[in-house]
Amino acid sequence: xxxxxxxxxxxxxVTANREVARGFWKMSLAAPGVKFKPGQFFQLRIxxxxxxxxxxxxxxxxxxSENGFSFIYAVVGAGTAAMTRLSKGAETGVLAPLxxxxxxxxxxxxxxxxxxxxxxxxxxxxxxxxxxxxxVYSIIGARTACTLLEVEALKKISxxxxxATDDGxxxxxxxxxxxxEVMLEEIGLKPKPVILACGPEPMLKGLAKLAAxxxxxxQVSLEERMACGxxxxxxxxxxxxxxxxxxxxxxxxxxxxxxFEATALAWS
Amino acid sequence: xxxxQTAIGDVTxxxxxxxxxxxxxxxxxYENFVDLKKLGGIVTKSVTLKPTRGNPPPRVVETPSGMLNxxxxxxxxxxxxxxxxxxxxxxxxxxxxxxxxxxxxxxxVALAEGLSDSGIxxxxxxxxxxxxxxxxxxxxVCENASSALVKKLRKAxxxxxxxxxxxxxxxxxxxxxxxxxxxxDALVVANxxxxxxxxxxxRRPILGNVTGGLSGPxxxxxxxxxxxxxxxxxxxxxxxxxxxxxIREVIAFLLAGASAVEVGTxxxxxxxxTGRLVDELSDWLKSHKTSVSDLIGALxxxxxxx
Lengths: 268, 306
Ligand SMILES: Cc1cc2nc3c(=O)[nH]c(=O)nc-3n(C[C@H](O)[C@H](O)[C@H](O)COP(=O)(O)OP(=O)(O)OC[C@H]3O[C@@H](n4cnc5c(N)ncnc54)[C@H](O)[C@@H]3O)c2cc1C
Ligand SMILES: Cc1cc2nc3c(=O)[nH]c(=O)nc-3n(C[C@H](O)[C@H](O)[C@H](O)COP(=O)(O)O)c2cc1C
Ligand code: FES
Prior knowledge:
A: seven-stranded mixed sheet; 5 helices; binds flavin-adenine dinucleotide; binds FE2/S2 (inorganic) cluster
């Protein structure tokens, strides 16, 4: 498997780090020269000189520039809690770019579907696609109105942008998959939009089903617990359909993914 | 002799820094970060006779200053290894040590035979994987089974046999001595420590395999104690493995009686670590006017009796 871009292990300086929605923080890092393709991710070493937390944490960029990048993270455990305490000027370790990224269509229409902390990385993806002249549609799902992420940015680049919340406090009262179904009704299937999605597994699974029904191509970005993030440990297994006795083999989310064709996965 | 040089039986190593099986793939993933030739040698991921699917996810979980893994020896099998993975590694590494794992004695023998003419420098025999139902640790926790296996392997191949022991035993010296008498050339001390992590909200184990092997800085004192104990019980060279994060752990392993060390989990966090360790060790030896060979077993207390 040839590497399209080689991985760098560098020190990045925090330029901003603040809460942007309830329980979600945005961190900006100065890291000149790091190039991401949409759908790729990085591994962050929170404290360079400590073994606690030990492993790096995987995140995907929401904005990328010449001099660095930003990402939005949900504060869910010890590692992300420690991240909120990094202030401007702090140094962190970044291993990037990692993973395959989306196989981006060259023209036509794209439907982005983001759920929870999966949405921010689709902002970067959407901006790249819009800049290349593709027609972007987007769905943003969240638990509740105040945890909706990147709404303004996605609205700006989308022909249509819809929101869904579990509690009905904004947009459609329901899940991102239902919102996607509504959107597809509205925009039709000619020409067929390609679905690119990032979010919780039930959402991706629901989208895979919807895409199969409508015969649409659908790529999903997965999450799995990782140790290395660059293909060495076999820690991040996902079941992919295979022509063998079991009907599947395990592939590495970090190196063979994180983006997979929805039809290739042996969904549990 | 250069002050970094060391020897594991007949295998000389330019320096004592090796990679730990299962943490370095077949080297390829680290080429961005380390000049593989600079290391004493590369120990490969365990190779099994047939492709092995591995355990269901989650397979890794972080623990205080360490991690549990239950990969389940996922690999593509011997044939693929010989054809696709070994040749490029042999071009890029100073020494290649292939780690083998089997379900039965016959598996191990077939692996040893299959690798005998491949030009590798040594076999590392994994009798200590805690994450598979058959074979693996079942051999390593029983001195009779390990001894019988090593005797068979000794007959099957002329390759140096480095036997990787399990720490999950009452007295590691018993297995160490049995394996030495059976003809092992070196002992690798040790594999991961059996552990478990529980999601208290879901009341379920976190790992798909329920239990896993503990590694990383947290296990270093445990591995160091094992090396020191085994050093007092056998004459063959030892390779220390467990929790190496810097040259402090490397030197401690040497002092406790190891002739080389393997670096595992910390490669995930600092992929350039092994290369840096070679330089830092060299500097330390110079500043202390000493050598690797002078450090081996130089801990200044009497070894334990009994
Ligand atoms: C490719 C990829 C991209 C990601 N991008 C983002 C992002 O842009 N924004 C964001 O908020 N989150 C993202 N995540 C999830 C994020 O990595 C986890 O939420 C984070 O690691 C949790 O760390 P913690 O120490 O706070 O949690 P803890 O639960 O304390 O972490 C314990 C261990 O489990 C791992 N872990 C826990 N949850 C996850 C998870 N969902 N996925 C993978 N590993 C997990 C941690 O990395 C750590 O090793 C991404 C995950 C992957 C795999
Ligand atoms: C993810 C992972 C996979 C491993 N796979 C193997 C393996 O295939 N064969 C083996 O003999 N040991 C395996 N090990 C054990 C290591 O080689 C080493 O003995 C152990 O991790 C202790 O060293 P460390 O603390 O430096 O990681 C594995 C360890 C880890 C963390
Ligand atoms: S996290 Fe190590 S192989 Fe994917």
